[in-house]
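*** Query protein ***
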Amino acid sequence: MNISARNLLSGKVTAVEKGAINSEVDLTLAGGEKIAAVITNHSLENLGIKEGVEAYALVKAPLVILTKGETGLKFSARNVLSGTVGKVKHGSVNAEITVELRGKGTITSIITEGSVSAMELKEGDQVQAVFKASSVILAVKQ
């Protein structure tokens, strides 16, 4: 599958809560992490999403915010995945940060070099990858 979104995470749908217009879908990844997605009911039906279905969560890297260490904060964003910085690829303006998730797999974030410097971010640091449920696009194989 060729896509422009940097993050393609596979898992199984473990919960669906249908609302009047949108549905909340929980996807459990192979390593046990859970991702929440908010999609339209039309998309839910069109994709045939229900509990037990294998699906993919797509998240563009610039939408993934990083926090370093244990912040003690609660976020309004539903998705907070913990892991370790595996790689920092520096650019002139932005950096690409690959986070090795605690369970299995990776997620990538694009943040400014200024943020990397201010956070003193380096390989081996404990981080959380934070992104909103509305920033997740779900896909299924046909």
